[in-house]
Specification:
alpha+beta; 4 helices
Length: 109
């Protein structure tokens, strides 16, 4: 199953993405709680809710990213960004993500 990584700069775009793939893929979302020093992690499914995860870089690397990207995403999270990993079975979903404007969504090539 292809795995796509990126981060959203627009919460409406994130919600739109989740709505489009909820039947054909799985979305993992990492974000920082504003009042805590922990991150909340997906995948977002009906059966699995968010949960705290303390060793963020390790978990990002388990998702398949090398150390430099894990460090970059950790910095994004520390600044209040939202990191998203999409596991999707439909190859055409990459085309759907490409339709979003660059100011709303950034993907790793």
């Amino acid at each position: 199953m292809p795995r796509i990584f990126g981060w959203f700069n627009n919460s409406q775009t994130l919600l739109s993405c989740i709505e489009k793939i909820r039947h054909s893929g799985m979305v993992s979302v990492l974000l920082r709680q504003p009042n805590e020093r922990v991150l909340v992690m997906g995948p977002l499914t009906k059966d699995v809710g968010p949960y705290p995860f303390l060793d963020v870089q390790h978990h990002i690397r388990r998702l398949g990213l090398p150390r430099p990207w894990a460090e970059k995403y950790t910095r994004i999270l520390e600044k209040g960004g939202v990191v998203v990993c999409v596991d999707v079975a439909e190859p055409s979903f990459t085309d759907i993500l490409s339709q979003y404007q660059a100011r709303d969504l950034t993907l790793i090539p």
